[in-house]
Design brief:
By secondary structure, this protein is α/β, with parallel strands linked by helices. Helices cover 27% and strands 28% of the residues. It binds adenosine-5'-triphosphate (ATP).
């Protein structure tokens, strides 16, 4: 469970004001909103990367006080976070160790079709290639809480199909997934619930 209780986020302007919502394991949640409405900020708050007021509990533990230490949620915001001098294989090995993954690296590389470039430096990848690497890090994560910012960014249609298949498998295994995307993304078909950020609130959208 991820539970936001009376959460407010504010920069120069308010982003969220006194929002309470609960996300359950084994379900997929979508988050939409206008550009700049605060979608990424909500995910960053859940991942404890920014300050907020109120309480955010992940799996029952209180994370009101941002603390370093074990990162319970899996959040890799976007492919610009990669060090372009490293290779996909460097990251796959690192995440496999960090999350004590039992998934074979070979399987992940093959699922996302990264065989041809897995040992090349990330700086030479296209946007879609970097995004497949980013998604493959989620596939290695053993976290029950997958928080994703625009996961289909840069993917071609075949890769979107792979992503949808993978996401459904993760859901069936009991994971809780929250992702943001833009209004017309077909991945919202997979969601158990979609919320829209409007007027600093999270409003449930009729699907
Ligand atoms: N670290 C920060 N300091 C100050 N303002 C910030 C910071 N991060 C985000 N903002 C502001 O908060 C607002 C929400 O930004 P955020 O990136 O969460 O929106 P978003 O809904 O994800 O946008 P987009 O759809 O364009 O990706 C924006 O006005 C942005 O300028």
């Amino acid at each position: 469970m991820i539970q936001l209780s009376d959460v407010s986020i504010q920069f120069e302007e308010p982003i969220l004001t006194n929002v309470s919502v609960t996300f359950q394991e084994g379900k997929i949640y979508g988050l939409v909103g206008a550009n700049g409405s605060g979608k990424s900020s909500v995910l960053r708050a859940i991942a404890r990367l920014i300050k907020y007021e109120g309480k955010i509990e992940v799996g029952g533990s209180n994370v009101t006080q941002a603390q370093s230490g074990f990162q319970k949620v899996m959040y890799f915001e976007h492919s610009e976070w990669f060090d372009y001098n490293l290779t996909a294989m460097d990251y796959l090995k690192l995440y496999s160790k960090l999350w004590k993954s039992e998934v074979e690296l070979k399987e992940v590389v093959s699922y996302w079709g990264m065989e041809d470039y897995v040992n090349r430096k990330i700086g030479k990848y296209s946007l879609g290639m970097r995004q497949k690497l980013l998604l493959s890090l989620y596939a290695l994560s053993t976290s029950r809480y997958l928080i994703m910012d625009e996961p289909t960014n840069g993917l071609d249609k075949d890769a979107v199909i792979l992503f949808k298949q993978w996401l459904e498998k993760e859901k069936v295994s009991g994971k809780l997934i929250v992702f943001t995307s833009h209004y017309h993304d077909t991945i919202f078909e997979l969601c158990d619930a979609v919320y829209e950020i409007e007027n600093h609130q999270l409003n449930l959208v009729d699907q």
